[in-house]
Structures are given as C-alpha cells and as structure tokens.
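Please go through this chain and its backbone structure tokens and walk me through the local backbone shapes. Keep your notes short.
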Amino acid sequence: RSLSPAAAVVLGSLLVVIFPVFTCIEFVCLRYTTIPFVQVTKGFQVMGVASPFWLWFCFAALQSLLMRADMLTDGRFLAELVRQDQCPGEQLSDVWQAVIGESMVSFLAGVKLSQVGLAAYVLTLAQCIWPLLQSTPRCGGPPVDYCVQPSEGQRSLRVQSALTACPEPDVEQLNFRFTNLVGTQVNLGEALMMLGEAAGMSSLQLQSPAYPVAKAELEPEKAVGLADAVVSRGVVSIGLVAVLENSLQIQLQTSIFALKAFLLHRYDVLTITSLALSMATLALKLKDAFKLLSFSNKVRAGAGEEAGQSEKLRHLLRYTRILQLLMLLLLLSLAYGAAKFAAAFICEDSLWNLTGCVDVAALKAGKGQQG
C-alpha cells in the first residue's frame, strides 16, 4: 500500500523485461543440449510415454512457465509479508507469536514474521552459490578444450569455441574435464546442467536422468560413473532447491494462509495460488528424485567387480542414501503442508499444530494471564 505508482510501474517494467530475457536464455541452452540428448536417447518422452518433439517441447515450456510463476508468486508473498509486518494495526504478527510459541518451533516466537520470511528467501541463494563453486575451473589447472566432442566418423560436427579453437588431434588427446573450486572433476556438460538448474531452468531437467540412463546402456563400462555424477548433482539440486526453498515456502505459506483465514474470515486467493505452485514444483522435484533413485538401484544391481569400481560404488551408495533421506523430508513436508491447508477449512480457528486444532482465544488469554 505504501508503494508509489511510479515505483510500481518501474517494478512492473523490470518484470516484463527480466522474465522474457531469462526465458530466452533458457531455451538457447535447451536447444544446445537437445541435439546430443536426442542422439543418445533416440527420441522424446513425456511422463514415460514416447512423444513427438512438439509435445515434448510444449511440456518443457509448461514446466519452465510453472517455475517462473512459482518464483514470481514467492516474491509477491514475501513483499506482502514484509508490508504487513510494517503497517500499524496488523494483528497477523500477534497471532503468529501466540501460535508459534506453543508449537514444535517455539524458539521462533521472539522472531518477527517478516524476518522468518526473509530468512527463508535468503536460503534460496544457496542454490546459486554451490553450483557456481562446482562449475568454476580452479586456477592453474590443465587447459580445457571448449568444444563438442566429435563422434567417430563425424569430426566435421565439432563446434569451435570463440575462446579456444579446436585443433585436429585424436579425440583421446582432447580434454573436456576440469578440476573445480571444491576439488572434484567435472566435464563441460555437467557444468552447464548445474548452472541451468541453479538458474531455475527447469526445462533442462527433463533430460535428467533420461540422458545418462541411455548413455549407460550404450556404454555399460561407464554406468557407475554416469550414475554417480547425476545422483550427486541431483542431491545438491534437491537439497538446495526442494528442501531449502520449496519445503520452507510451503510451511510458511500454509501458516500465513491459516492465519489470514482466522483473522479475515476469508481465504486469500493469491496465497492459494502461490501455495499451489510451490506444491506443484515440489511434486516435480519428487518425481525427479524417484527417477534418480531407480537409476541408482539399477546401476548398483548390475555393477560388476571390476577393479576401481568398489570405490565408485561406495560413493554412489552414499549419495543414494542422502537422496533417500531428502525424499523422506520432502514427503513429510508435503504431507504436513497439506494437513495445515486442509485444517484451515476444518478447524474452528483455521489453525492446526501436530497436537490438533489450535484454540487461539485460549492461547491469547493464557499469554495475557502470564503478562
């Protein structure tokens, strides 16, 4: 309400410019990765069913639009939360303090509601910092050939970089891997996928794990390494995005939705929209996690006893266990958020903790007696 008309126009213009620019960059990256993807997978699939390119592309565009809308509504939700905390006469923070003090996270009772929202939003920056560290080459390392590796008999398809012109040596002499800032070996394709996921390019995630699964079938001797790379990258993506962003946003938004339902005796449509988008995004992350888990189980079950495989298998198993733990956290978060959302329509005061419906009047009376 305190935003001037001029400031509103500026912010709206920024959104009109920024979102199309990000979308164009995303689909440039998608075009770059789709060619090797279809060369290996031999086709496109939507929800596990063979599909034509146009249907797959529409599904990718829809998923990208869903991610952008989720980011936009999360930002609007945070702005509304900060505004309500600053405006005099708002009762939202008072009821929040009373309810949160009797919950499992009672230590947050002394924290402002807007501060909780800002903290949850700041945590989303972690999904950018870690991929940047993983995709940045360490200084002083061996030179890297920034070009597409040619297949046998298809050397003319090599794509030259503006920075490094690819010479004509044997393929075996080209180096497509580098040591990143955290000390692990990464190839150029993995770096691109990590940066794309960090930037919220959800359409790129349609290629994972379909590409490494098909690649493992073509080159079984590389299956363990492929599974280890994609599962470890998935753990980082799911942990930083689904857990630290989507899960926290769902818990915060369901709580605010219930508080508004109690205070205003109506249901906020914008909060419902934001909550629905967050839950849909979390459900997509869970779907990706199940695919990664299935791929890991298949590779570990078929792995042989070749020399050097045992260490890779232990590493893959460790990341698989972490993935299973993250999946459990996501399922619990989704179930708890759904229960709080349903309670907003069922409970008399619209609020619910694990112990049952919350009697806000009794809580406030108890606080008054203590004071």
Remarks:
- The CA atoms of residues 134 and 180 lie 5 Å apart.
- The two ends are 33 Å apart (CA to CA).
- The beta strands are 44-46, 49-51, 177-179, 185-187, 352-353, 356-357.
- The chain has a mean pLDDT of 75.
